[in-house]
Write a structure and sequence with these properties.
about 350 residues, alpha/beta, 6 helices, about 20% strand
C-alpha cells in the first residue's frame, strides 16, 4: 500500500461467480497469492455468484449444463434442493478450500487510468491500483426491460426474471410472459399450473431443438457468439443461437397449449396488452423474461466500447486495452465457457506481468 492509501496489486478480479472463481483458482496455481498479488472483489452478500438470486422453484435438478469449477467436483448434490442453496454452498466450499479470500460485499464504481501504467479500481472499500484486471461481472445486475407504448399506464404488476418469486404468487391471476428463451419457458410452464390464464408472447417464433446437443453443435453455437464479440457488437447469449431443448416437460406443455406462442404486442393498456390487428388480452401481471445485458458500466472510463456498442475481445483480452480481460462475457457466458475463460485470462495476464507480449 502506498502513502495515499491506494492498495497496489498485480491483478484485481471483479466478480466471484463461476468465471471469477475460475480465474482466482488459476491465479493461485500460477503462484500469485490472494491479498498479496491479487484480490477478488464481489458485490454479492454471500458466495454463489448470480445463482444465489435464482428463484426458489429452480431446483438443482432443473439446471442444465452446470459444470464443476476447476479442481473440485460438485458431487452428491440434492436434485430437489433449490439451485441457489446447492450451488451457493458449493461455491462457498470452493472459496474455503482454495483460500481465495473473496472480499464482499464490495461495490466497484469505476475503473479508470491510474498512475504509472496501472489501472485505478475505485471501490466501496477504497481504491486499488492494479497492473491487470479480470472482469467477471456477468449479466445478472443488468436485466433488460423493453419499452412499449402505454407501459406506465398498466395497472397490474410488472416484473422481470431478475425478481421472479416462483409460481405461487401468480395463483388465480392472468399472466403474460414475454420472452422466448429458457427462462421464459420455465416461468410459463410453472405459472400455467396455478394461474387462471397465461399468454406467451415472443418477438420471433421459438425454435425447439430435438435430438442430442453434442460438442460439435456447442462449438458452432459458441463460434456464432464469438464472432459478434470479435466484431465489437454486443454479445448474444449462447442459448439464443442453440434453440430450446425439447424435453418431456416441454412436449407436455406444447400438447396442453401452454406454449402456444403469440407475436409481440404493439402496446400496453391499463388492463392488459393490445396488438395492431385489434386483438387485446387482459392481464394482472406482465412478466418480462427478456434477458440481461453485460454488467460493464464500471469500465466506461476506459472507453473500451466499439462503435457497434460492444467491447471487442480477442480470446479474453479487450482489444482496446490489453490489461483488461473479460471472462463470462459473450462466448464464455456459460459455466464451462467461464472455466475455460478463467484459465485463458490468467495465462495472458501472467504473460503480461512477466513482460511477454500478448
Amino acid at each position: 500500500m502506498n502513502i495515499s492509501g491506494t492498495r497496489e496489486l498485480d491483478v484485481v478480479v471483479i466478480g466471484a461467480g463461476q468465471a471469477g472463481l475460475s480465474a482466482a483458482y488459476h491465479l493461485r496455481h500460477a503462484g500469485l497469492g490472494p491479498d498479496r498479488e491479487f484480490v477478488v472483489l464481489d458485490h454479492a452478500p454471500r458466495p454463489g455468484g448470480a445463482w444465489q438470486f435464482r428463484w426458489p422453484s429452480l431446483t438443482y435438478g432443473k439446471v442444465h449444463g452446470m459444470h464443476s469449477l476447476p479442481g473440485m467436483e460438485l458431487t452428491g448434490a440434492d436434485d430437489s434442493g433449490p439451485s441457489s442453496e446447492v450451488i451457493g454452498a458449493y461455491f462457498d466450499a470452493y472459496e474455503q478450500r482454495f483460500g481465495l479470500r473473496v472480499h464482499r460485499p464490495v461495490e466497484v464504481s469505476a475503473v479508470r487510468e491510474g498512475a504509472g501504467g496501472r489501472l485505478l479500481v475505485e471501490t466501496s472499500e477504497g481504491p486499488y491500483a492494479t497492473r491487470a484486471l479480470i472482469n467477471a461481472t456477468g449479466t445478472w445486475d443488468r436485466p433488460f426491460w423493453p419499452r412499449y407504448p402505454g407501459q406506465e399506464s398498466f395497472r397490474g404488476r410488472q416484473l422481470h426474471t431478475a425478481n421472479y418469486p416462483g409460481p405461487t404468487e401468480f395463483a388465480g391471476l392472468r399472466v403474460v410472459v414475454v420472452g422466448g428463451g429458457a427462462s421464459g419457458t420455465q416461468h410459463l410452464m410453472e405459472i400455467a399450473e396455478v394461474a387462471s390464464e397465461t399468454y406467451w408472447v415472443t418477438r420471433r417464433p421459438p425454435v425447439f431443438r430435438e435430438g442430442p446437443f453434442g460438442e460439435e453443435q456447442g462449438r458452432a453455437a459458441v463460434a456464432m457468439v464469438e464472432e459478434r464479440v470479435r466484431l465489437g457488437l454486443p454479445p448474444q447469449s449462447v442459448v439464443s443461437v442453440t434453440g430450446l431443448p425439447l424435453n418431456d416437460a416441454v412436449r407436455r406443455a406444447r400438447e396442453q397449449g401452454v406454449l402456444d406462442r403469440l407475436p409481440m404486442f404493439e402496446r400496453i393498456t391499463p388492463d392488459g396488452v393490445a396488438w395492431s390487428d385489434g386483438r387485446t388480452v387482459k392481464a394482472d401481471v406482465i412478466l418480462w423474461a427478456t434477458g440481461f445485458r453485460a454488467a460493464v458500466d464500471h469500465l466506461a472510463p476506459l472507453r473500451l466500447r466499439e462503435p457497434g456498442g460492444g467491447i471487442r475481445v480477442e480470446d479474453t483480452r479487450a482489444v482496446r486495452d490489453a490489461r483488461v480481460h473479460l471472462v463470462g462475457y459473450g462466448p464464455s457466458a456459460s459455466t464451462i465457457g467461464a472455466n475455460r475463460a478463467g484459465r485463458a485470462a490468467v495465462r495472458s495476464v501472467t504473460g503480461l506481468l512477466d513482460g511477454v507480449p500478448a
